[in-house]
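forwarding from the other thread:

> can someone predict this with flavin mononucleotide?

sure thing
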Amino acid sequence: MPELRQSIAQHYHERTKYDPETISAKSKGLDWAKQPVPFKEYKIGSNFDLQAYIKEKPVSFANNSDALWWQRLSRLLFCSYGLTARMPSMGNTVYLRAAPSAGGLYPAEMYLISKGTPLLPPGLYNYQFRTHSLMHYWESDVWQKLQSACLGNPSLEGATLAIVITSVFFRSAWRYEDRAYRRIFLDTGHLIGNIELAAAFTGYRPHLIGGFIDEDVNELLYINSKQEGAIAVLSLADLQDIEQNTPVAPTALPSTTETDYPRIPDGELLNYFHLATQIQPDTTGKLNLPEVNVDKSIEDKYNFSFCDKISTVTKPVYWGKKLENLEQTILKRRSTRAFSGESLQFHELKAILNFTYQPQNYINQNLDKSPDYFDLNLIETFIAVSGVEGLERGCYYYAPKAQELRQIRFKNFRRELHFLCLGQDLGRDAAAVIFHTADLKTAVAKYGDRVYRYLHMDAGHLGQRLNLGAIHLGLGVSGIGGFFDDKVNEVLGIPNDEAVLYITTLGRPR
Ligand SMILES: Cc1cc2nc3c(=O)[nH]c(=O)nc-3n(C[C@H](O)[C@H](O)[C@H](O)COP(=O)(O)O)c2cc1C
């Protein structure tokens, strides 16, 4: 039987792989004059200032319920995507944010939609990070439109606030061209990770919504969908209002799977692929979403026989009274620019893994025992260990359910990791390099081509937990979005069906 044609998601992934043979021919120089600005400005609208509330400690507002309400929202937005540092660069200022972004390009925009609360009138707000304020640019109620665009997702029923994350594609495509799509969703995953964690100390329960009619969400936000598109919606249940205690709803809905696509020229692939992964009604107005087979697997995916298994069970990371240290960690987080090459202790790696993959251990600290992801069953984790005291060098599969490392290769990979990370020293000098992967064929079979978005957002979300775990322990950490895709599998012994989504490097900062 002839092999079925790859779906557009698999085709996109294949086409945007970095390969040592072709990378230099493909990479064009950057046109700095064309670099887009990483923020939006509004000519009309009214501004709601949130600055005052982050300067004060919550106790200062103890008897003022209005001020406390504002403070919770202010801290949530600040810890998600607020301006946490300014860096001079070539005569300009680079604004660094609470969430990291590939190349510091910040394609994501964050909007708040209010159904109308006593303090926040209904309508649309854009989060203006430079002034830490909300720009109310549309004053009519759009809540019903949001509910119908999100196909009646039950988490919106009781809620009165929702966050929508969009992407202004060219901000990232300007530099990374078609491959930018991967980084855009990884960035958003980091932002979702911050929202998820910051919600725990500000009294919200975010419900992640990945299934929505794209064009309807874009329309209700009044954005130009040729340049900017909605990529994630989060309904914010206020935990101080019992009415908003909604049950968990499905986070991921499937799209169609496209195998009948034309030849798409370089430079047009990102836009084509984005349109192909949208959820949209057919010409008769029907949605016709494919069925999703729920997989109830309770086993870790890989259990290689004859491999060494090392338990990673440890006690949870302590985030302080009322999660104070988590808030401080989010605000001081930076991507490490160079590692010293020194080793980590195994207990440090175990603590980071525990925080990232074992959320059920954090209920006592008031963190969600099962934060929303799109579908973590589709994502696997491999770790190349170059310098962890108490752990042999080599490549391991991390089995999150069994909480153990299963060794698949014995070797010091430093030289190879340098090469795999496109010659970036971070790869060589890291003590451990974490790879998130997914079997794209299986993932597409489950959710259609839209899964490509879900996978990258989930990998970014895990990446943000790794970041925060490492920073809290005083270690260094950085995401890496550029790597020689196929060589990673070849060199480290990761099964070939596993497409590499994202890399996180861990080590001691120089
Ligand atoms: C998806 C993603 C990919 C990244 N890839 C790289 C990379 O390949 N090399 C690197 O040095 N930093 C990388 N970074 C780190 C960014 O450069 C960094 O987040 C950005 O400069 C902002 O700085 P901050 O993280 O300190 O706030 C990446 C970050 C993200 C979120």
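Residues 398 and 405 are 5 Å apart (CA to CA). thats all i got for now
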